[in-house]
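[INFO] parsing input record for Probable GTP-binding protein EngB
[DEBUG] input buffer:
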Amino acid sequence: MKVNQAEFIISAVSPEQYPNTGFPEIALAGRSNVGKSSFINKMVNRKKLARTSSKPGKTQTLNYYLIENQFYFVDVPGYGYAKVSKTERAKWGEMLETYFTQRETLTLALSVVDFRHPPTQDDIQMYEFFKYYQIPVLVVATKADKIPKSKWNKHESITKKTLDFDKEDQFVIFSAETGEGIDEAWKVIESFL
Ligand code: GDP
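[DEBUG] output buffer:
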């Protein structure tokens, strides 16, 4: 998809604020700093549409970006944020559960993981959650520019094995630095719109 139109719609705190246009939603989940904002910016070819640094105070919001007046990228607050209190973490969990289990317009979850390292316990839990609720997943293994191509196969095997990757799901090696994986990611996303 060649994106001409991309706009930030809302940082939604509660479900009443979620848009009611009925457009499909592609949600991004992943650890803080894994590269979710960078993924969105690269995919829509805009440098600063999504903010590329996680703000602790923003842990409870879902950020909606409307793309081509056709669908939303929904940036879900990152997990694994060390400085968050127990209460905040519980609230965050509740919000995610509500969104992922009840949002009817959600069509695909992007599980963004760091391609350099095996998925973390949080990554595994998130993926298992998607599997449990039968939500289709595209695993985006990002920061691929940080490892030599000769090691990509090995890293892909480790990532898939650690996640207990379901063959029905999709997997894309990505880099917001080089643009690796953009076309492939669009192909998968478009097949869900
Ligand atoms: P978010 O918290 O998941 O939204 O992560 P960000 O998009 O803000 O990225 C966190 C940091 O990782 C930033 O410094 C980015 O520049 C960097 N980053 C993100 N994606 C890539 C990538 O593909 N390659 C490299 N080398 N750095 C990346």
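[INFO] Residues 34 and 102 are 26 Å apart (CA to CA).
[INFO] shutting down worker
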